[in-house]
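Per your request, structure below.
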């Protein structure tokens, strides 16, 4: 467990070289990763260019969509014009049908009278009245017949003329009705074609926008995935690349110097002068001290303290926080730079209340223990330990050191 935490400490806080790997292997692996990162970066750049192209396509599609919208407006207007024409034609047909009905009813009512008058007119034309030079007794009848014909014939002709006019109007109405019906058929055909074109244009407009949007979303997702992969590789490469490591250490040293120039961010006393003066970070029972059997065939490199659930954890000394966060099976982990080359490791917390880069004073609260022991803090004979366990490790120049000389009362129980 200590070896695991120690190697993690070096990677996270001290940025040391990976144990067991030669400088040549480091450089070769770094070169391979740099090449892979470069390839991914080129893919990201290509993806960005592709996103720009798709964005341009979307702008062009937008312009085309505007043109389609104009066309849709024109078609819709034409459809409404034809619909109005169809409605007008239907109204005219209804009016013509009504007039045809009135004429038909009128003709039906006059059918018997007109038939008799027309028949009488035809007989008179074939058999004109006798001459007046006849028997005296017939003179009065002839005069009466002449008088009657003089009166009746014009009426018959007038009725016949009116009948012919009505029949002609009826024929004209039927012709006009057929013309209007043909207009309706033509307009309906054009209306159907316009509606079909309208539907096609609407579908095309929607499909164009959706397809372009989907391509852009897919390209953005691909770019994000590549960026995440690049970040992961860059982080790994940074931990193995000697040159980048040196630059990071130089920048860190400059930043530490700047912070330490401020009186409030400097340890009050050098850490080496704190021997026998430090309080334990948390109250509890010391289960193992430095150098004890760890239950796995090895020796402990730090102190194990069983605490109560949710116990308060404080920093034992003034320090800069080099790392604060979860770490594998060790729960929440704190790595503190106490100065003079010393680093303090606190593992097994349930929650931390400070962040990387902060400066804390001795006794300042930095977190709480959890409800149970983190798996990484358990020992061979304590795998059933139900209490939370705080693991404390001191390091000097990258090597673990016995912390017992620093605690008040040496290795007395961690109780106030």
């Amino acid at each position: 467990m200590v070896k695991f935490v120690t190697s993690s400490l070096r990677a996270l806080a001290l940025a040391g070289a990976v144990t067991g790997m030669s400088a040549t292997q480091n450089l070769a692996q770094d070169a391979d990763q740099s090449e892979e990162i470069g390839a991914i970066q080129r893919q990201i750049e290509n993806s960005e260019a592709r996103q720009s192209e798709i964005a341009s396509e979307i702008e062009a599609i937008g312009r085309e969509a505007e043109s389609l919208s104009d066309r849709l407006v024109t078609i819709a207007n034409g459809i409404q014009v034809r619909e109005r024409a169809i409605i007008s034609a239907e109204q005219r047909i209804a009016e013509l049908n009504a007039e045809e009905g009135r004429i038909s009813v009128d003709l039906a009512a006059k059918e018997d009278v007109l038939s008799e008058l027309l028949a009488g007119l035809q007989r008179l034309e074939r058999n004109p009245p006798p001459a007046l030079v006849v028997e005296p007794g017939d003179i009065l009848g002839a005069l009466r017949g002449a008088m009657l014909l003089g009166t009746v014939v014009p009426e018959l002709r007038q009725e016949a003329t009116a009948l012919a006019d009505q029949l002609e109007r009826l024929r004209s109405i039927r012709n006009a009705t057929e013309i209007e019906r043909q207009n309706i058929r033509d307009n309906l055909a054009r209306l159907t074609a316009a509606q079909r074109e309208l539907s096609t244009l609407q579908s095309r407009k929607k499909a164009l926008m959706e397809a372009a949007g989907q391509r852009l979303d897919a390209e953005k997702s691909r770019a994000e995935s590549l960026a995440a992969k690049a970040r992961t590789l860059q982080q790994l490469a940074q931990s193995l690349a000697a040159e980048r490591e040196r630059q990071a250490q130089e920048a860190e040293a400059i930043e530490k110097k700047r912070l330490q120039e401020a009186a409030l961010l400097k340890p009050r006393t050098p850490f080496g002068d704190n021997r026998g003066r430090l309080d334990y970070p948390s109250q509890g029972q010391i289960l193992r001290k430095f150098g004890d059997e760890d239950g796995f065939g090895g020796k402990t490199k730090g102190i194990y303290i069983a605490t109560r659930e949710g116990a308060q954890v404080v920093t034992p000394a003034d320090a800069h926080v080099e790392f604060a966060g979860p770490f594998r099976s060790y729960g929440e982990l704190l790595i503190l730079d106490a100065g003079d080359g010393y680093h303090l490791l606190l593992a097994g917390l349930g929650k931390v209340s400070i962040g990387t880069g902060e400066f804390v004073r001795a006794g300042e609260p930095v977190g709480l223990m959890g409800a149970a022991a983190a798996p990484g803090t358990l020992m061979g004979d304590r795998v059933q330990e139900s209490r939370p366990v705080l693991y404390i490790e001191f390091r000097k120049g990258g090597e673990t050191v016995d912390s017992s000389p620093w605690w008040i009362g040496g290795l007395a129980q961690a109780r106030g």
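The two ends are 28 Å apart (CA to CA).

Regards,
D.
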